[in-house]
TrEMBL record:
It catalyses: gamma-L-glutamyl-hercynylcysteine S-oxide + H2O = S-(hercyn-2-yl)-L-cysteine S-oxide + L-glutamate. Residues 2-253 form the Glutamine amidotransferase type-2 domain. The gene is egtC. This is Gamma-glutamyl-hercynylcysteine sulfoxide hydrolase. It comes from Streptomyces shenzhenensis. Keywords: Glutamine amidotransferase, Hydrolase. Catalyzes the hydrolysis of the gamma-glutamyl amide bond of hercynyl-gamma-L-glutamyl-L-cysteine sulfoxide to produce hercynylcysteine sulfoxide, a step in the biosynthesis pathway of ergothioneine. GO terms for biological process: ergothioneine biosynthetic process. It is an enzyme of class 3 (hydrolase).
Length: 253
């Protein structure tokens, strides 16, 4: 459930990344090609982007389907960025959190998205609650598994943990508590993209102009797309992509 995408590269209109491709995130909201769980991603959407000179990202999120928001078409046509994270949502469970439950989540300079589900939510995650200070539990943006996953990860990041190690540690912690979980996580600070493949599809593409796209599935049939093996950690910048195994105890930074 859910589809998401991150981009780093030369400035592009949001629409060129999300709407114009023949199988872009816009179309994936009703016709994903490789989604293994769920069929329609109509429970909200969001896009976050970075403006030159400002390390804190902007976000636009809504609770309904992306195709039903005429304002997004205007925004996507004129807003340009060289660092973007966007997602369309298929809810794990019904809820009343609205746009607050739609990725990307944000904290400090980070944007985050979760493609998947914490199995047995919320009971299976209860043993992990003590890992968070009470104020962080009370500050959750939404009462969803994805918001809780983000709180666990952000706690590690704010403690100074390397982002790759923080992602890997969060995934292993959740997988141990809820073994059937699907934990494809996507994280960016506008200069790098980190992602995990754990139970669902993840692909990446690098372009000749220095751009890198990491996504749940390819948005076109360009042969440069490469699939990330399951149980992998991906680190990317505008120049290269590196993969390491999440089965290793500590993927190297």
């Amino acid at each position: 459930m859910c589809r998401h995408l991150a981009y780093l590269g030369p400035e592009e209109p949001l629409g060129r990344l999300l709407v114009d491709p023949p199988h872009g995130l816009y179309r994936q909201s009703w016709a994903p090609r490789r989604q293994r769980h769920g069929t329609v991603n109509a429970d909200g959407f969001g896009v976050g982007w970075y403006a030159p000179g400002d390390p804190v990202p902007a976000r636009y999120r809504r609770s309904g389907p992306i195709w039903a928001d005429p304002s997004f078409a205007d925004l996507a046509r004129v807003v340009r960025s060289g660092a973007v994270l966007a997602a369309v949502r298929d809810a794990t469970l019904p809820g009343a959190d609205g746009a607050a439950a739609a990725a990307p989540f944000a904290g400090d300079r980070w944007l985050f998205s979760h493609n998947g589900a914490v199995a047995g939510w919320p009971a299976a995650a209860a043993p992990l609650v003590p890992a968070l200070p009470p104020v962080e539990m009370l500050s959750l943006e939404a009462r969803t598994d994805s918001a809780f996953v983000w709180a666990l990860l952000l706690h590690r990041l704010r403690a100074g943990e390397d982002p790759g190690r923080a992602l890997a540690g969060t995934v292993r912690e959740l997988a141990e508590a809820a073994p059937a979980s699907r934990l494809n996580l996507l994280l960016t600070d506008g200069t790098a993209v980190l992602a995990t493949a754990w139970g669902d599809t993840l692909w990446y593409r690098t372009g000749p102009g220095g751009g890198t796209v990491v996504a749940s599935e390819p948005y076109d049939d360009d042969p440069r797309w490469q699939e990330v093996p399951d149980r992998s950690l991906l680190r990317a910048d505008r120049a290269e992509v590196r993969l390491s195994s999440l089965k290793d105890p500590a993927p190297a930074p």
